[in-house]
Amino acid sequence: SRARGPAAAPRPTKMAPGPAEPDQMSVEELERHFGTDMSKGFTSKQAEEILARDGPNELEKPPKPTLFMLFVLQLTGFVIILLLVAAVASITVNATGPNKSDILSYTTGKAIFVIVILNAGIAAWTEHK
Fold this sequence. Notes:
Blueprint: H1 27-34, H2 44-54, H3 67-74, H4 78-96, H5 107-128
Helix pairs in contact: 3-5, 4-5
């Protein structure tokens, strides 16, 4: 039979025995490694030392989005995109129609555009606070 794909990479050899990662240790090894007892836990002094050394046991919080990014995200909703398309269509129709020189014929498109942008700005500001 023919081999398919690239040749298989050689498997890594096991490293010399040394200190294992805590997630690889048994309960008894963990007790010895950290100098504690599973039924009693750390002493207050040990807990303070570990907290000072390693910091709190919590996940990193993702960075807060910027005000500009929140504003852009407000403009990606389906209804908002439809409104922006309607504003562009209204301005385009009026720019190619018989009343293209009349500035008031562009009012609907401009109004939709301004309201959508204003709404996105207010929503982004509210979410940013």
